[in-house]
Design a protein that fits this description.
By secondary structure, the protein is of the alpha+beta class. It is globular, with a radius of gyration of 27 Å. α10 packs across α12. The protein starts with 8 loop residues before the first strand and ends with a helix. It contains 18 helices and 37 strands. The C terminus is likely disordered. Strands 13, 14, 15, 20, 25, 26, 33, 36 and 37 form a nine-stranded mixed sheet that branches.
Length: 744
């Protein structure tokens, strides 16, 4: 009797605005396979399944060989950015019905903007906010009993109004959740169809406005995220013949198992699809987070510990900061107009992708984005007429010869004549020749990206001249050389298969859950027993979550941090805390770390000043379930540093409109080897991406196939990128700098 041994294949899938990127890791062979398939905006799940089908066919594998599928999704992100939220209701403590209207009384860009600033619409209009009697104090003691009759009346009112999505935030519920939990029970009794989020489960942290907003965002995205994840989960079951969820059939007794399915979280971890539907807010930056992690791993391997990442897609570009191999985290982030205090990788997004549309303003100025032609109809050169005949960034690159007349190795031919027709029309309106118009479109796009990079770096107090730029995504590397010139960066690193870095990043991340509990106490009067009990309770919650994900207890890892400040400050600095129980000595070490971090961030501290007491505010625990990461193979060396073996052709390319077209050698990247050097001007092409190398730049290929691009005449890239010591805690750095901005 013959037996069949299944292979062990993990698949990462990142859905972008234009393409769905797929990377598969064969754990037994140690090989990595990558591909792309067009995205399907009308139903993103179709593009996802097409990607699974394509990579399994390439590998000659079946669903039974897949041990896990990890996915970066933009469903929640797009819903928030577009503001397409269903009717949403809010229930809060009696007397606090205007917490959303009052908010933080902050005016964007400073109070000098007060005259011009128009207060945005609230996520819940005032007429859909209801209150319920009952009150807890900040220590969790009941001040007034919960008004059950009032709660039932509110539940019935929302049912009568047809409001099926609700957020609940009662005052001080972070200290005692019993009133919120009872409110949910009553809602489900009186309004069975309701979708409800309670603040004590979403964010067990003080500051009522931020907790309210975070809870409401969680509730708002829950229906769509749940439907999307459930749809894909059911379609994945078909690969193994597993019984449908909720069918009542058992998966035991030799029945086929369901394909394990994980969703990328904003904090840089993944979570099973079954669990993520209960905490959908954790996915609001799911897609961008994966790219930052993949770029961090690649850049660290190449020896660069201070990196700005630039993930250029079809619709937008996402930028972030990596310090010492760790993407910076924040709890002061937002998506669109909605603040969220969940831990997330600090990402800034700008509407400058390959499909971004060029248009003329009523004043006659050339503009680019944020509108995008997306995947359907796509740029003019896709041959589908574009978005009302408007040219895009991709059309400009094609006309100037910076990308080939086809994409994905010939799978998608491009119509150069259609691109030229659209660009000639906009050039005529501007009174320019078509090359100057196309160059102007790319210049505006480059400055849009540069401004996003400045926002994530210079605004955080970082000197961009000390940083390498890691570019990836289908369009991320097209303007890399121009960004070096604009920002005076140390150089650029372009990973192998840059269009698939986000999907690759999905294969490098652990299962991760974050837990927080507010416990405000002065350091000199710290109740160490209560502190250790709280950390123990948070660790127990993390342990149960990792148990549910199938991790053995011996594999559980935990990270502890605390938010500290000086008494009287409004925001905190996050510092690491030892995992073992704290005694007076280790608590003092945490306080010392706070002094150090405060000085590193602000240039001063109050160490030794008895008048300036240290205060503990929030205790945090992160539970980590580690996975096996794929290793990046070395590509091997060629004979000498002669890259001619990879040269395939020569074509005219316009790098500067004033200089016109110059004959430019074209290289096929898979044929480049470790140690090869390419002098600009040059074009380096591969299956999913193109890198234009401008005149004056030099490319060196490293052992892992990365392209390291520098401009001779400046300091050595590696020296500059390591010129200043990396901040000890990237997360503490960004959290505190953002807090400083808030105080300002």
């Amino acid at each position: 009797m013959s037996t069949t041994t299944n292979r062990r294949i993990r698949i990462g899938i990142d859905t972008g605005g234009t393409f769905t990127d797929v990377v598969a890791f064969d754990e037994d062979a140690g090989t990595i396979t990558s591909t792309k398939t067009p995205s399907t905006p009308s139903n993103p799940a179709d593009g996802f399944i097409n990607g699974v089908d394509k990579v399994l066919e390439m590998l000659g594998a079946s669903g039974a060989d897949v041990t896990a599928v990890s996915h970066g999704t933009t469903v929640a992100t797009n819903q928030l950015l577009e503001g397409k939220l269903d009717r949403l209701g809010f229930i809060t403590t009696e007397g606090y019905e205007f917490v959303l209207e009052i908010a933080r009384q902050a005016v964007p860009d400073g109070y000098g903007n007060s005259y011009f600033w128009v207060k945005p619409e609230r996520i819940v209009p005032a007429d859909l906010v209801k209150t319920v009697g009952g009150r807890m104090d900040f220590e969790g003691n009941e001040v007034r009993p919960f008004d059950e009759d009032g709660a039932r009346a509110v539940a019935r009112w929302f049912k009568e109004q047809g409001v099926n999505t609700l957020g609940v935030n009662f005052l001080h519920a972070y200290a005692n959740s019993s009133h919120e939990e009872r409110m949910r029970e009553i809602l489900l009794e009186e309004h069975p169809d309701v979708v409800v989020s309670i603040s004590s489960e979403v964010l067990r942290e003080y500051r009522e406005y931020e907790r309210s907003m975070t809870t409401l965002v969680d509730a708002a995205v829950k229906p769509k995220v749940s439907a999307y994840v459930s749809n894909i989960s059911e379609r994945l079951r078909a690969y193994t013949g597993a019984p449908a969820e909720g069918s009542g059939e058992s998966a035991g007794g030799g029945a086929p198992r369901a394909m394990p399915f994980y969703i990328m979280k904003s904090n840089g971890g993944v979570l099973s699809a079954e669990e993520v539907v209960h905490q959908p807010i954790t996915t609001v930056l799911s897609g961008p987070a994966a790219g930052a992690l993949g770029a961090a791993m690649v850049s660290g391997l190449a020896g660069f510990d201070k990196v700005l990442t630039c993930d250029g897609g079809g619709t937008s570009t996402d930028v972030s900061v990596v310090l010492s191999g760790e993407p910076t985290l924040t709890t002061e982030g937002s998506v669109g107009a909605y603040p969220s205090k969940i831990p997330m990788i600090d990402v800034v997004t700008v509407g400058a992708g390959g499909g971004s549309i060029a248009w003329i303003s009523p004043e006659g100025s050339l503009k680019v984005g944020p509108q995008s032609a997306g995947a359907d109809p796509g740029p003019l050169c896709y041959g589908n007429g574009g978005a009302d005949g408007a040219p895009t960034i991709t059309d400009a690159h094609l006309l100037l010869g910076r990308i080939p007349p086809h994409l994905l190795g010939g799978e998608i031919p491009l119509d150069a004549d259609a691109a030229r027709t659209g660009l000639e029309e906009i050039a005529g309106t501007l009174g320019l020749d078509v090359e100057h118009a196309a160059s102007g479109i790319l210049e505006i796009s480059a400055w849009n990206q540069a401004n996003a990079l400045r926002q994530i770096s210079v605004k955080r107090g970082l000197d961009v001249r000390d940083f390498m730029l890691a570019t990836f995504g289908g369009s991320g590397s097209l303007l890399a050389c121009r960004l070096v010139d604009i920002l005076d960066l140390a150089g650029v690193i372009v990973p192998l298969n840059p269009g698939n870095v986000s999907a690759f990043g999905l294969l490098t991340v652990d299962v991760k859950n974050d837990y927080v509990q507010t416990m405000v106490a002065k350091h000199d009067h710290l109740d160490l027993g209560q502190l250790n009990r709280t950390y123990g309770e948070l660790t127990d919650r993390a342990t149960r979550a990792l148990d549910a994900e199938g991790f053995e207890r011996a594999d559980h890892q935990f990270q502890r941090t605390a938010d500290l400040r000086y008494v009287g400050q409004a925001f905190e600095v996050r510092v690491p805390v030892p995992v073992e129980d704290l005694d007076a000595a280790t608590a003092d070490q945490v306080a010392a770390a706070f002094h150090d971090a405060h000085r590193a961030l602000y240039g001063y501290d109050f160490r030794g000043d008895a008048r300036q007491e240290v205060e503990w505010v929030n205790l945090r625990v992160t539970g980590v379930g580690p996975i096996t990461r794929p290793s990046i193979p070395e590509i091997g060396t060629g004979e000498g540093t002669d890259a001619e073996r990879a040269r395939t052709s020569t074509r005219p390319v316009c790098f500067e409109a004033a200089d016109g077209y110059v004959d430019t050698p074209v290289y096929w990247r898979p044929d480049l080897r470790d140690g090869d050097e390419v002098q600009g001007p040059a074009i380096i092409e591969e299956f999913g991406s193109t890198v234009p190398v401008h005149p004056g730049f030099v490319v060196r290929v490293d052992a892992w196939g990365n392209l390291v691009i520098t401009k001779p005449g400046g300091d050595d890239a590696g020296t500059r990128a390591a010129a200043q010591p990396a901040v000890a805690s990237a997360t503490a750095y960004v959290t505190a700098v953002q807090s400083k901005e808030e105080q300002a």
